[in-house]
Amino acid sequence: MMRIANVVLNDFTRDNRVLKISESLAEKGHEVTVVALQKPKGAEGGAVPNSEERPGGWNVVRVGVKSGRLPRGTVFGVIKMAELALRLIQGWRHVDAWHCNDIEAFVLGWLAQRFNPKLKLVYDCHEFEAERNGKSKLERKLVSWLERRMIRKAAAVITVSPSIAKAYQERYAKFGMANVHLVRNIPSPRSERGPMEGPGPDHFRDRFNIPQEGFIALYQGAFTYNRGLETALRAMEGLEDSGVHLVLMGYGLLQPIVEEAANRLPHVHWHPAVPYEQVLEHTQSADVGLVSVRPTCLSYLYCLPNKLFEYILAGVPVLSNDLPDCRALIEEHLVGRMVEQDDALGWRDAVLQMKAEGTATFQPGLKRSASELSWSKEAVVMTGIYDELDRE
């Protein structure tokens, strides 16, 4: 069995993929430690423990940096990253493998490998790292240069969607990259309930006094730019008497505009984010789930977002704009419909059409998908990678 550092450069309070991977590797007998960041004292979000023992035989260690108290800025950012690199490399270079979540952790793993050539790196790309949303042209070029230089040092590369896997293969195969493995971000076994037998808790109707005949469209996930949140809100303008209600469940930078809309429009409602294990129970209170990521970069165009699988496994049909991997999955499993006109009018018409026609036609596909789509199946690929590394 291997000693694995699952390295993630956040405070590991909401990163469900890292959680699922750690649980699955620990179940296979590996010694797993999530190595995350400790927020500076007084930072937004409050303090989290420096270390935690998790059920299932794995643990969490959060690494703090004294320079974290310094102001923001390029120079201070370099100082913070340098201190973090020293602490992580010093503390974790002697394990057998680093599971590197995203490019930043992979860079640190590559540096640690310089001190321990036997260290195996698994590069887990949660997005198309060189083509991420909000990155400048210079930043994208830098990430691409780093990947070209380092990727041959990865024992395995994992991506989250077929299109991103194909893009990595095409871009980096000539630089000595290992095979690319697809591990989609499907909910973990403890949350894989699929459609409930009989009605479950009606969280949204109970919380917001929505009538039983009301039709609930759900946006869940990050409140941030280029996820289609603003379009969904504009689509609700003028639908006060239509019986359609929009529930937005999550948190993020755009929360103020969500709260403003919820205060102004009686059929728009904000629901705070809920713990991971409660997500599907809340999701199944909706009538349709929205996947509205805007294809403003290749990472978003090729995405296969968590919420898509959460809707399906909760038994909720999907409305999605035309993203290739989302379209392929929705059409393969017959679990929803595409919104061909990605603007407020197009989304408004699609929601109203879904309400008028009803969602019964999608229930057979949703029930089949509840057994066909599971994290336990995805984890077979991921744990198989480590089985192979352990035999080397």
List descriptors.
single chain, about 400 residues, alpha/beta, Rossmann fold, 2 domains, eight-stranded mixed beta sheet, six-stranded parallel beta sheet, 15 helices
Structure commentary:
With 392 residues, the chain is α/β, with parallel strands linked by helices. It has two domains: 200 residues, Glycogen Phosphorylase B (Rossmann fold, 3-Layer(aba) Sandwich), CATH 3.40.50.2000; 183 residues, Rossmann fold. The protein contains 15 helices and 14 strands. An eight-stranded mixed β-sheet has the order 3-4-2-1-5-6-7-8, sandwiched between helices. Strands 11-10-9-12-13-14 form a six-stranded parallel β-sheet, with helices on both faces. Strand 6, helix 4 and strand 7 form a beta-alpha-beta unit. About 2% of the residues have low confidence.
